[in-house]
Amino acid sequence: MDEHIVILIIALVVLLYGYISKWLARFDISGPMVFTAFGLLLSPFGLDVTQVKVDAEFVTIMVEIALVLVLFSDAALLDLRLLKQSWQLPARLLFIGLPITVAAGTLVAGLIFPDQPFLYLLMLALLLTPTDAALGKAVVSDPKVPKTIRSTINVESGLNDGIIFPVLITVVALIMSGLDHAQDQHWLVYVMQQILFGALVGGAVGYLGTKLQIFCFKRDGMVETYLNLIPIALAILAFYLAEEFSGNGFIAAFFAGLYAGNTSEMARGHIEDFAESEGELLVLISFFIFGLAFVPTTLPYVTMEVIIYALLSLTLLRMLPVMISLIGTKLDLATRAFIAWFGPRGIASILYVLIVAHEMGSIKGFETLYAVVTVTVLMSILAHGLSAQPLANWYAKRHRPAEPDTDGEDSTA
Questions:
Q1: Angle at 253 between CA 90 and CA 371, to 5 degrees
Q2: How far apart are CA 374 and CA 350, in angstroms?
Q3: Residue partners of 235: CB distance under 8 A and separation at least 6
Q4: How far apart are CA 95 and CA 196, in angstroms?
Q5: What count of Cα atoms within 13 Å lies in the side-chain half-sphere of residue 132?
Q6: Transmembrane region positions (predicted)?
Q7: At 96, which helix (H) or strand (E)?
Q8: Sequence ranges of the domains in the chain
Q9: I want to staple 401 with a disulfide (CB 3.0 to 4.6 A). Which of 146, 182, 243, 379 is the partner?
Q10: Tell me, what's the pLDDT at 81?
């Protein structure tokens, strides 16, 4: 593989999409659609311009950096003070809907793929549980949609990947240690160490780094340009420092962002600027790599069972748990269905599955599971990308924006 060719192609795709992005948006064609399509077009399944292996060092580094910055920025943009005022709906989705989704996903996977070990099925459910608000950007950014509904979808997307990742790490550690060693408590110590040290190191880096940034800026010691660069450096520092202290770097990046974004309004503003520009570029590059490297590798393993599970994952296995979790709220049926539908599978699933593939060394033995993730994400890119704006318009016409009631539930009827 010639990395320089890949980099040149990415630059050309960015230019092409950037010039006509607003025109394409009028037809509900999103960035993830375009970058995934170009990746697939240039892969061995298309023009075969270049070949990229899933476990290539170039791919691993790109994916790791993208995931670190996505976790950091997602966490930083979670306003804990605002969340305290209107936390009931996101809490229902995260602490009722999410566990039901994982359990249902594992159970149904066992029925469709009876030959797969339980831990593999659980890993599949975990890979497909995190949602990606970016694929339904029109919904979370359209002011016509009630603020509480937009916030609920956004907070769920921002937090569920951070909740799922430690569990996913646990499952991967169990698989790699071998079922014969399940009684050995070493893996449990390893996982707890990864989570604890990752959270401590990340929190310290985010808090102290942001405090130092404020101190230096107020005393006219910083050039303003670097306000957008400091968060990037803090995210990467948290990742590598945690790894050095036997913690998990991705968890560290999440906690660094959580503390950085909630330590300073100024810092959160600059992180948001980064997320809307450089961060979005990394996300789009990840979709390109997904189409270029991962899709061609896994498509040969797509079967009817894979397609059925992917369809269920995007519909019943997502929507029913959400509908159940929202029982007892004041939301009407249309609002519950609206929230339930907008659980796209995108960047988190892509990055997690690429990280898992790298940890496992190859896709051998996991072909069916990775094929399910591929088909689910491809379906989601199209279905949620094409439906976001039309459904946002439809919903907004029938539900006027309303502020949450004092109990935190939305009064939208």
A1: 75
A2: 8
A3: 68, 69, 71, 72, 73, 253, 256, 257
A4: 21
A5: 27
A6: 6-25, 58-80, 92-113, 119-140, 161-179, 191-209, 221-239, 281-301, 307-326, 338-357, 369-388
A7: none
A8: 3-398
A9: 146
A10: 73
Looking at residue 405, its pLDDT comes to 42
The per-residue pLDDT for range 325-373, each reduced to its tens digit, is: 999 888 889 999 999 998 888 888 887 887 787 777 666 778 899 999 9
- Tell me the per-residue pLDDT of 379-411, one tens digit each, with 9 for 90 and over: 999 999 889 889 988 888 887 654 444 334 444
Instruction: Give the Cβ contact number of residue 55 at 10 Å.
Output: 16
Closest CA to 314 of 282, 349, 352: 349
Beta strands in 204-306 (DSSP E): none
**What is the Cα–Cα distance from 324 to 29, expressed in whole angstroms?**
32
Q: Is 402 helix (H, G, I), strand (E, B) or coil?
A: coil
> What is the DSSP annotation of 150-196?
HHHHHHHHHHHHHHHHHHHHHHHHHHHH-GGGTT-THHHHHHHHHHH
* Cβ partners under 8 Å of residue 184, min gap 6: 177
The CA distances from residue 393 to 148, 201, 338, 389, in Å, are 16, 44, 12, 6
Q: Give 3-state DSSP helix, strand, coil % of the chain, rounded to 5.
A: 75, 0, 25
Which tokens sit at 73? 């920025």
Residue 58 contacts residue 286 (beta carbons within 8 Å)? no
Question: Which of 110-114, 163-167, 257-261 is least confident?
Answer: 163-167
For residues 35-52, average pLDDT: 84
The predicted-structure confidence for 289-325, as pLDDT tens digits, reads as follows 889 888 888 888 999 999 999 999 999 999 999 999 9
Tokens of 186: 């070493």
Among residues 175, 84, 74, which one has the least CA distance to residue 130? 74
Which amino acid appears at position 22 of this protein? K
Burial category of 277 from C-beta neighbours within 10 Å (exposed 0-12, middle 13-18, buried 19 and up): exposed
What number of residues does the chain have? 413
CATH 2.30.40.10 fits 3-398, yes or no: no
